[in-house]
Amino acid sequence: MNFFPLSAKPFAWPSAPFAILLLATIVLPAVVGCKGCTATTLPPLTSTGSSHFVQWSTGDAGSVTTSRTYEGQAAIPGDVIVVFCHWNGAQISATIHDQAGNRYVAAFPAVTVSPNHWFGVWYTVNASYRKPLAVMAAFSRKTTSYAVIDVAEYSGFTTISPLDAKSLSMGSGMTQDSRALTTSNANDTIIVWFGYTDHNLPYSAGADFAKRKYEATTMLEDRDVTSVGSYSATATSYHRGNWIAFALAFKDTGP
Known about the structure:
Blueprint: H1 16-27, E1 53-60, E2 66-70, E3 80-88, E4 94-98, E5 105-106, E6 111-114, E7 117-124, E8 134-139, E9 147-154, E10 163-177, E11 181-182, E12 188-196, E13 203-205, E14 210-215, E15 218-225, E16 230-231, E17 234-251
Antiparallel strand pairs: 1-9, 2-8, 3-7, 3-9, 4-8, 5-7, 6-7, 10-17, 11-16, 12-15, 12-17, 13-17, 14-15
């Protein structure tokens, strides 16, 4: 690559020690950061997130009576699959299932945050299948314009009564806060799903949690904890709007 105009005089490199210093000072920082553009110092992460996270997928089928989201990789037998669903329409209920016949339990009854905006979260324990799961939401009637399904897979949870604690909160504004949940198991993974009635991104996770994944109207954050206690999660959105937060604490099999 020619860094100089054709009309410029050739550059005469100085002595070797100075040339090395010049390269280290000028050239090397240019390859650090975003796509080789400029030198960038990244801020430290407040949390690396849960070590039990496996994969995440999302999909929106629009106005439908059945919506599907496909995992990108084969599900691992024994893992926990957590499903967050967001749909719109008057008095529409939903159930969750997959092609493997795993049983999904609703962590809470479906909640409407504002007229015709519905949110729900389900999970299945000890998932069985060695192929990517096709997670399906069946609605009681056709959704108005969207039917979002987010699917997260986690490993290393106990397979008997893995849910240790849970909390639900909702509100309006640019800051979100899940109500505190109190764990009874020393080693837990806390998974928090924030749902929004509008496209309020970008979203940011609060202290001690890592933003795992997101799409237009939802964000997933998580963390591992190693002591019994009270925990809550926070988040921020770029725009003001109505929101909901589901927090689930699952028991890890070990430290």
